[in-house]
Amino acid sequence: MPAGGHPVARNASFARLTPQHVEHFRKLLGHEVNSVTYATDPDDMNLLPYNVDWIKKYRGQSQLVLKPSTTAQVSQVLAYCHAENLAVVPQGGNTGLVGGSVPVFDEIVLSTGRLNAIRHFDDVSGIVVAEAGVVLESLDNYVGERGFMCPLDLGAKGSCHIGGNVATNAGGLRVLRYGSLHGSVLGLEVVLADGTVVDMLRTLRKDNTGYDLKQLFIGSEGSLGVITAVSLLTPPRLPSTQVGIFAVSTFEDVQRLFIAARRHVGEILSAFEFWDRTSQQLVETQLPTAGTPHLFDAPFYVLLETQGSDADMDREKLERFIERAMDEQKPLVENGAIAQDQTQARAFWETRENISDAATTAGACYKYDISMPVPVLYDLVNDAKAHLKQKGLYDSAQPDQDPVRFITGYGHLGDGNLHLNVVARDFTPEVTQAIEPWVYEWTQRHQGSVSAEHGVGFMKPKYVSYSKDEHSIRIMHGIKAMLDPKGIMNPYKVLQ
Ligand code: FAD
Ligand code: MLT
Ligand code: ZN
C-alpha cells in the first residue's frame, strides 16, 4: 500500500524504469543543468522534495525527475513515455493538498520548474501569456509592474506555479470578486499523453467556435495532459486597498456581516474570509515568530478587504460600514481594526494565510475542503467535534492522550467554502476511518461538494460520486480514455 493511504495496486501495464530509459531522457534533455535527476533510491535527498507532498501525508517512490524547458521537450518526453508505457506525474510547485502532485508508486515526475518564461503581455487588455512553471507571485509582480494584478491569490503564491493553479482550478482569496479560473483563463497550450501539442493559446475574450476545450484541462489535475502555457486575463491593480479584521461572536453574526458588507460596500468588496478561535490560536502558538499581530480573543474572525479607485472614499465607506455594524441594536462586530497602512494590511492577511501552515505544523493535518450553502457551513465543524468525541478520539477526560488534538474551521465564506482541518498526532487508519466517509456523507446530505477548490488528487477519487452523478462520472472516464488511452497521465488520481 502506498504511503499516504489508499489501498491501490500498481498498474502492472506500466513499464519499470530501466537504465536505457534514463539514457534516452538524458539524450533528450541532459545537456541542460538539472534537467534530469535520477537515483536508484527514491529517498535520495535530490528526489525527496518531489516524492513527498506539502503536508507530508503522501510519499511516492519515483527514481526520476525530468525538467523540460520547452514545450517541444515536454512533447518529446511524453511521446516516449507513451510509446514505452511509462507513467508520469506532472508537478508544479508541489503545494497541492490532496496528494495529486506526487507519485503513488514509481511514476516519473515531470516538473514544470524550468518552463518559466513570460511570453507576451498586452498592456491594453491586461492579458498575459505565461509558461506553466512561472511562480504565481512572480507573475503577479510582473503584471503588477505594468498596472495589473493576478485575479488569483493564495497562501502558497510564493511556491505554486500558474500551470499548477490552472490544473487544480485553484480558488483562493478573491474568487468573490474576480471569479474562478474558468473565467479568467482565455487560452491554454497543452501536451497530450502521446506528445501531441494542442494549441488553444488564444488571447480572445470571446471565441464561440464550438466546444470550449480548454475548460476540460482547467481542474484536470494532470490527468489529461501537461499544461505548458496559460493565457490569463488580469484585472487592473486598483490604487486603494483597505483591509479590516473583525471579532464576531457567533457564526450567525458572521453571515449577517457578510450580507451587510455586500449591501453597503459590495461594489468594492474583494474578499470576505473567516476563521474560528482555534485557527487563531494555532497561528499564535505554532508560528510565534511569523510576525502576525496578536488579535483580540473572539469566537470568530472576519477579514474584509476592499479594492477601489479612491482611497479616501473607500476608507470612509468602510469605516462608516463598521460603525454601523457596531451600532446595531445587536452589534454585528464586537471589536475590530482597519489597517492603517500597507504593512499592517499585509500583516492582517498573513494571519489568515498562515492558518494552513500553522495547522500543518501542529500535527498530522487531515484537510477537508468543502463547499456548501453558507448557513450550514460551520455546522460541519461542530458536528465533526461531536462525532470525533463520540468516537473517543477527541476532547476526552485525558486530552493529552487524545489522537485528535485540534479541530478548526476557516475559509472563503464569500464562496461558501469551508476548510475543516482535523489535526491529529499521526496519520492513522483509526483517525482516517473515523472521519471518512463520515465527512463526505455529511457533505452529500447538505448538497455540498467534497472538493471546493483543492481538487480530488489521490485523496478523494472514491468520494467523487458523493458530488457527481453516475453519468457525469461515466463521461469523465470517456474523456480520460480518449485523451490518454494508456492511462499514463497521473494514474490513481481523480478517477478510480
Ligand atoms: P502542484 O501541487 O505541483 O500540482 C497540483 C496538481 O496539478 C497535481 O495533480 C499535478 O499533477 C497537477 N499539475 C501541476 N502542474 C501541472 C501542469 N503544468 N499541467 C498539468 N497538471 C499539472 N488552493 C486553493 O484552491 N485555494 C487556496 O487558497 C489555496 N491555498 C493554499 C495555501 C497553502 C499554504 C498551500 C500549501 C496550498 C494552497 N492551495 C490552495 C492548494 C493549491 O492547489 C495549490 O497551492 C496550487 O494551486 C497548486 O499549484 P502547484 O503549482 O503547487 O501544483
Ligand atoms: C486556504 O484557504 O488557506 C487554503 O485553501 C489552504 C488550506 O485550506 O489549508
Ligand atoms: Zn482555501
Automatic annotation (TrEMBL):
SUPFAM superfamilies: FAD-binding/transporter-associated domain-like, FAD-linked oxidases, C-terminal domain. It catalyses: (R)-malate + A = oxaloacetate + AH2; (R)-lactate + 2 Fe(III)-[cytochrome c] = 2 Fe(II)-[cytochrome c] + pyruvate + 2 H(+). It is found in: Mitochondrion. Keywords: FAD, Flavoprotein, Metal-binding, Mitochondrion, Oxidoreductase, Transit peptide, Zinc. One of its GO terms (molecular function) is (R)-2-hydroxyglutarate dehydrogenase activity. Residues 58-237 form the FAD-binding PCMH-type domain. Its cofactor is FAD. InterPro entries: FAD-bd_oxidored_4_C, FAD-bd_PCMH, FAD-bd_PCMH-like_sf, FAD-bd_PCMH_sub1, FAD-bd_PCMH_sub2, FAD-linked_Oxase-like_C, FAD-oxidored/transferase_4, Oxid_FAD_bind_N. Its EC number is 1.1.99.39. PROSITE patterns: FAD_PCMH (PS51387). Catalyzes the oxidation of D-2-hydroxyglutarate (D-2-HG) to alpha-ketoglutarate. Also catalyzes the oxidation of other D-2-hydroxyacids, such as D-malate (D-MAL) and D-lactate (D-LAC). Exhibits high activities towards D-2-HG and D-MAL but a very weak activity towards D-LAC. Belongs to the FAD-binding oxidoreductase/transferase type 4 family. This is D-2-hydroxyglutarate dehydrogenase, mitochondrial. It comes from Caulochytrium protostelioides.
